[in-house]
Specification:
The protein has 243 residues and is mostly helical. It has a single domain, classed as Hypothetical protein af1432 (Orthogonal Bundle), CATH 1.10.3210.10. It has twelve helices and no strands. Helix 2 runs antiparallel to helix 6 and helix 7 crosses helix 12.
Length: 243
């Protein structure tokens, strides 16, 4: 950031931190279902498709979506099934967590404003591409693919919070924030706000850490998940999904 842009954005970054710290701006948390799934699947030896099905079955919309995916050609759905536990067995436990997180997080990327909708579409494309790249890198390097997928999907959650904060400042304080300034605000704030948001959702700490450190100039080999997300983020940008 040069001195001119720093002088322009510093008062705004302070204002955004203030409204976030005051609780005036938040992101709706991921459904409790996501955290309960993550908790259940931490011990795969005690998990079973029936236990996961009982948990997922508490949300009919999610259950219906998982059944539809399990019956799709992508998951070898040559023989239709209607039993949720069989669908989960076909999808795989970890895949279910990724799918439910994707369904839940996608709701954060919607807006009735056409301009904001295009920006959110770009952010969503970047998130999904990063998630898929992170999962692939994990499969090549001995990491946990589904955790890597979720970390990639959530790594830029802080940018969504910045967008909400900017809306708040424009509505309540009369601020007029132009696109280049918005980009700078997201770049400056999204890692710290993403970390605090994910921590408030009780997301596992390695995923929170990846959100905070995925732009570090020096990689930390003691945190391989953050390294994978950083590499996947670069892949997504290289593919044209600039966020």
């Amino acid at each position: 950031m040069n001195q001119t842009s720093a002088a322009t954005t510093q008062p705004l970054t302070d204002s955004i931190r203030r409204v976030v710290d005051a609780g005036k701006i938040t992101l709706p948390p991921l459904p409790n279902l996501v955290n309960r799934l993550m908790e259940l699947l931490r011990d795969q030896d005690s998990a079973s498709s029936r236990k996961v099905a009982r948990l997922v079955g508490t949300d009919p919309a999610v259950a219906a979506t998982l059944l539809r995916w399990a019956n799709s050609a992508a998951f070898g759905g040559l023989h239709p099934i209607s039993d949720l536990s069989l669908a989960i067995a076909r999808l795989g436990f970890r895949q279910v967590t990724s799918a439910v997180t994707t369904l839940a997080h996608s709701g954060h990327f919607r807006s009735d404003d056409p301009v904001k909708s295009r920006l959110l579409e770009s952010l969503w494309g970047h998130a999904v591409t990063t998630a898929m790249a992170s999962k692939h890198i994990a499969s090549l390097t001995g990491g946990e693919p589904e955790q890597s997928f979720v970390a990639g999907l959530l790594h830029d959650a802080g940018k969504l919070l910045v967008l909400r904060a900017v809306d708040h400042l424009e509505t309540h304080d009369g601020a007029d924030i132009m696109p280049p300034v918005l980009d700078e605000l997201m770049n400056v704030l999204h890692t710290e706000l993403g970390h605090s948001t994910l921590a408030s959702w009780s997301v596992p700490e390695p995923i929170c850490h990846a959100a905070l450190h995925h732009h570090d100039e020096e990689v930390d080999p003691d945190h391989p998940l953050a390294v994978r997300v950083q590499a996947a983020d670069a892949v997504a940008c290289k593919m044209g999904w600039l966020a």
